[in-house]
Amino acid sequence: MIIGFKNVDDHKGSTTARVLVDCLAEWDIKRVFCITVDNATANTSAMKKFKEEFMNQGEDALEGLNEVDDSVTAIRNGIQYVRSSTNRLKSFEFQVDTSKMTRGSLPLDVKTRWNSTYLMLDQAIKFMAAFEKMEAEDKPYIDYFMELESGKKRIEPASTTDWEEAERLVHFLVIFYNLTLMLSATKGITSHKIYNEIVTITRNVSKISSAPGDDETLRLKALTMMGKLRKYWNPFSEVSEFETTKSKSCKMNKLLIVVTVFDPRKKMNFANLFFEKLYGKESIDYNLLSESITDIMKRLYDEYS
Description:
Layout: H1 13-26, H2 41-54, H3 70-83, H4 86-98, H5 114-125, H6 128-137, H7 139-146, E1 148-149, E2 152-153, H8 160-183, H9 194-210, H10 216-233, H11 255-262, H12 267-279, H13 284-304
Antiparallel strand pairs: 1-2
């Protein structure tokens, strides 16, 4: 939805920031995922000022505007070097050949799209040994990381720790990538699959967030994500159009579960199995969810009849 066209009196960053804040205020918008601008210098100042002012509305206002992880940036910088000229690519392919690896493409991600970052890292990890040999033997590669970028020295070539961090991130993101492919299919119906995949995400993230072990970094990331998941999947929320007060349960749109019940291979037994996996069969949440779905089904039937 286009919420408005606004006149910006001048090209000052403070003016752009003020117009943007005022526009969002008109619609009572208090949370922003991302903002897209062109590469005009004034926009850098505008986004800085906007962030400072908009953050005053609450610490969760800017959900997606986080700093890029240094480990990912280090790997991305290495790929940018390899892709920047034919000679650099030949040098990299020489290291690939001498390391007895199969050649392959090195995609560069779109920083604002997590799935493209996943694909970039997944492919780059296969050539980790070649990048390490570049660092050890290729002086132009080292010199590249000594150059300034936007007035700052580039993050150094990916270290062993960076590659380990990337492997953890890929292990985490593959869960979402595979499910995204399934749900974004265009040649078949996917609505009856959504709840199944949401349960899969919840169970995987929950397992990682509670698993003891050495991978504390990944566990903390999963723990943070569980906090966001609970905002949408927690019990005891507002009553929806097809719910009675007695049957209110979680914040999600329960029609996602209803459409699963309509799948003749699954029906209500399948939905109850998910409730059991998520909350435990003897829990209050299990009983409330099961009752609420049955209640919605009855009310839908009454509406239909």
